[in-house]
Amino acid sequence: LLDFLDQHPFSFTSLIQRSLEFAVSYVFTEAGEGIVFERFIVQCMNLIKMIVKNYAYKPSKNIEDSSRETLEAHKIKTLFFTYPTLTEICRRLVTHYFLLTKEELTMWEEDPEGFTVEETGGDSWKYSLRPCTEVLFIDIFHEYNQTLIPVLLEMVHSLQGPSNVEDTSAILIKDAVYNAVGLAAYELFDSVDFDQWFKNQLLSELQVSHDRYKPIRRRVIWLIGQWISVKFKSDLRPVLYEAIRNLLQDQDLVVSINDFEFRTDQFLLYLESMFTLLFQLLQEVTQCDTKMHVLHVLSCVIERVNTQIQPYVGCLVQYLPLLWKQSEEHNMLRCAILTTLIHLVQGLGTDSKNLYPFLLPVIQLSTDVSQPPHVYLLEDGLELWLVTLENSPCLTPELLRIFQNMSALLELSSENLKNCFKIINAYIFLESSEFLQAYAAELCQSFCELLKDITTEGQVQVLKVVENVLKVNPMLGPQMFQPLLPSIFRGIIDGERYPVVMSTYLGIMGRVLLQNARFFSLLVSQMACALGQELDQILGNMIEMWVDRMDSITQPERRKLSALALLSLLPSLNSVIQDKFCGIINIAVEGLHDVMTEDPETGTYKDCMLMCHFEEPNTTEEEEPPTEQDKRKKMLALKDPVHTVSLQQFIYEKLKAQQELLGEQGFQALMETVDTEIVAQLQEFLQGF
């Protein structure tokens, strides 16, 4: 019947009334008492839920747009779900099906961990009674909230004040009602003043320490977890943290505590005690799922407070290797450990180097595709590898050795490829010489294979690695990746059709031309020979395409680089370069427009891309402090011609040199090939030279 409803909702229309009468009478009236059993109840609830939620039975906002079949089905539903029926379903769900059973209470007493895992994990909502009743409640409450909000609020108002600890029945009813209020938090947003309720009642209920009040303490903290992202004033949070800290000392309760959103500045006062209690709990719990949950909360805390966690993590750092060893058969727990390590490394910064004896073998195992666990651990393992490199103060032999895993990862060509390229770039920024000496040949071979069959985005990622190699090592870089350069050169003269690829091609060739002119000359000769063309013809074609496709380049850094690179061909007596002089000057003036800013006080222009010294950026509390890699990139920028050479000065010097080479008359003839408007703009930028 459920499959029929799912696959053919309109054919089911004639059965809606009878199906609802059947299911509701057995599950929500005395008719079912003594004869229904759990699997039958679950199937009936699923039937009701699927009819309530079915999109085929929901009219459009504009009724005229709805089909006749939809309107017919909606009418049947409306006639069935009257106020008395909805009220009875709601009351029965809360006061009957939401109640903790004797079996559940016994299990909680004897095995609190097992109880929590069963309750929060359990089977799918389709097959297990408690999650099934909660999902049905959420769906019916959402669909008929105008009718049901007053019903639920009346139930809440009837439970004001603390319950008698001797009255187990009253405690269980309150637990069930609070459960309903948590599940319906978004629907109740405008109807409940949660802040007042927290201050006037819920907080005091958290402070009732009697053992029989444990279900309420547990439910209240869960309830706050449901509401905190919906409606909860930030100035109440310190009071809440105090309450959580007290609850953390109750082992039967703590496994139910959620990972709350928090404001770092408010939380710091409680950081040491909270972290210590959570760590103690992590050691004491035995079930894999519970350890994962506690690790998740610890990870959230570490992530939020970042470097301020450093004084408190010693105990965790010592414990994680033992937990990793114990979890050999539990890959999901190992994933949780990896996530914790990611946040730990970010929080420890350069001090994470002290973790390497444990950290690096973990990365090695997680990213080794020949090891079966990689199926579960690879994604988090790559993330950990990356943050380890980003925060590393130097390249150690062990860190270098892990890169042996990379060639097999590149062959996978999976969704993890992006992180692989980030890792390669991180090695380049960390210690390019040692890294490239060890792996450049292998990497170049992998890239050649990858480029045969890869998406445009993947192609750009490969090219960006080559570009970064040329940035950090302009003399050796072109030789190390020489096998890739002819296809890049060919792509430029053939007019590569994808702008993002063309932009990267020109970025790479700009680096070679500007910073390694000798190698560029050899490359042009090689291409002329390979294509059977004259050297000057190849050079002319390249400059022409470069000028023509400048609009492909959107990044200001690359635009300035192109201007510098093309200007570096001057001064020259070469007829081809003189023939393209007009285009080169056009690009140079475009570059000036990109980078020059006018000083309003003096009226003079300056190159806004120039950097003269390294400054530690001031970070706000909400911003993460710069990683070691951020600092390395900044130091690299201080050596980059794009950030050290004034484009204005460079143009002036190149034009002056060309003038001296040709003489005044020859130079004027060359300048006359440039558009007069461009010349006027150039002269304005060069005022004062």
UniProtKB/TrEMBL annotation:
<keyword id="KW-0653">Protein transport</keyword>
<keyword id="KW-0677">Repeat</keyword>
<comment type="similarity">
    <text>Belongs to the importin beta family.</text>
</comment>
<keyword id="KW-0813">Transport</keyword>
<protein>
    <recommendedName>
        <fullName>Importin-11</fullName>
    </recommendedName>
</protein>
<dbReference type="GO" id="GO:0006606">
    <property type="term" value="P:protein import into nucleus"/>
</dbReference>
<dbReference type="GO" id="GO:0005829">
    <property type="term" value="C:cytosol"/>
</dbReference>
<keyword id="KW-0963">Cytoplasm</keyword>
<keyword id="KW-0539">Nucleus</keyword>
<dbReference type="InterPro" id="IPR016024">
    <property type="entry name" value="ARM-type_fold"/>
</dbReference>
<dbReference type="InterPro" id="IPR058669">
    <property type="entry name" value="TPR_IPO7/11-like"/>
</dbReference>
<dbReference type="Pfam" id="PF25758">
    <property type="entry name" value="TPR_IPO11"/>
</dbReference>
<dbReference type="InterPro" id="IPR011989">
    <property type="entry name" value="ARM-like"/>
</dbReference>
<feature type="domain" description="Importin-7/11-like TPR repeats">
    <location>
        <begin position="335"/>
        <end position="686"/>
    </location>
</feature>
<keyword id="KW-0007">Acetylation</keyword>
<comment type="subunit">
    <text>Interacts with UBE2E3 and RPL12.</text>
</comment>
<dbReference type="GO" id="GO:0005635">
    <property type="term" value="C:nuclear envelope"/>
</dbReference>
<keyword id="KW-0597">Phosphoprotein</keyword>
